Amino acid sequence: MTMSIACARCFANWGFRQVVAQHADLPDATCPRCAHVGPLINTEKLAEAIHVFFVGGSYLAETMAPVYQVNRSNPDPARFDSTLDADAQLACALTGEVIFDYGPPLWRVGEVDLKHAFDEGGDKREAPARGFVTHAPRVELPAGTRLFRIRKNPDPDETIATAAAFDPPPQHIERTAGRWDDGRTPVLYASDDIELCLHECRVLIADETVVATLSTTRPLALLDLTGEFALVGGTPFEDPSIFSRFLSLSRHEQWLDHARTVARAAKSASLDGIRYTSYYGQAKQQSESLNVALFGRPLEIGDLVIESVNRLRLTDARYEVSFGPVLYRDSQMQAELKEMIRRLTFRAVI
Ligand SMILES: [Zn+2]
């Protein structure tokens, strides 16, 4: 039975009101609480809105961990900023749900067994790296696969439609490290999605931007970090797919170091490169784009050819957002997590 209990206008916080409005699917009528006439919401849908806003809206960037969770029994409800607190209390009173501070299991912030093995550093990480590469899924890019690669602000006198213009720069030129390279070994990054290339290159309107349409000339064997692992761990801590996800998505120096170790192991296993989830894939819905890091200089050796070169102009840049609570306990929570991780690391050392 769908009993209407409230409407979006019963709530004051702008973001929460939007989420409630998205869930208010009963026909327009007079609200039993505030007497406003408009679409109404029932208990079930309001509980859903609470989950979407407070849990979905509180994920820490680059992790699988929300700051808040919801159930019907926690004795210690969370408090929120002054523009939201009354709404949270009202929504909970109407539904029986409780929003509480969530101490996430450590795997949700990437503290998994494989990471700890990699953390050992030096030679001790080589065996786990080889093991990871052996068990990770693979994919073959067929000859003729189309990929894009972007250059920002090329030299005006540069000859642009050449391998040298789109391969990784030669050894003597200083280059910044990438996710899958430390700046000393050449790796070419490309994608079949121009929009993702633009994000990865952080293109601004003022930039002169050139895109090369590339094509593979032979089948390329890649480590596929977007694929399903055949071996699944008994617990999330043992699950290599969680380690794999953090390799692709975290920007912390320690994770980047681990990603580069995996790249070296993949190269040693005679693979041509890595397929991975773009960092910006986190903010792109339904993205099935192909993002690859190819070892060496594939244009120079002819594994890739340039089909065309074009200038790009940004004509539309849009963002889609979702609302959530302000994480004013975030710094405290980060400190707690750091302390937990420090203790774990300490235990591993002794
Ligand atoms: Zn109302």
Shape: globular
Sequence of strands across the biggest β-sheet: 6-10-11-12-8
Secondary-structure content class = alpha+beta
Largest sheet: 5 strands, mixed
Overall pLDDT level: 88
What is the strand tally? 13
How many helices in DSSP terms?
10
Keywords:
five-stranded mixed beta sheet; 20% strand; alpha+beta; 350 residues; three-stranded antiparallel beta sheet; binds zinc ion; single chain; 2 domains
What does this structure look like?
The protein has 350 residues and is α+β, with helices and mostly antiparallel strands. The chain has two domains: 4-104, no CATH class; 109-312, no CATH class. It is built from ten helices and 13 strands. It has helices at 14-23, 43-55, 85-95, 113-119, 126-135, 163-166, 194-200, 240-249, 253-268, 330-349; strands at residues 4-7, 26-30, 37-42, 68-71, 98-101, 138-141, 146-152, 187-191, 209-216, 220-224, 273-276, 291-295, 304-312. The strands form four sheets. Strands 6-10-11-12-8 form a five-stranded mixed sheet. Strand 2 (26-30) and strand 3 (37-42) form a beta hairpin. Helix 1 packs across helix 2 and helix 5 (126-135) packs across helix 9. It starts with a strand and ends with a helix. The model has no long low-confidence stretch (mean pLDDT 88). Zinc ion binds next to strand 1.
Summarize the structure.
The protein has helices spanning about 15-25, 45-55, 85-95, 115-120, 125-135, 165, 195-200, 240-250, 255-270, 330-350; strands at about 5, 25-30, 35-40, 70, 100, 140, 145-150, 185-190, 210-215, 220-225, 275, 290-295, 305-310. It has about 350 residues and is an alpha+beta fold.
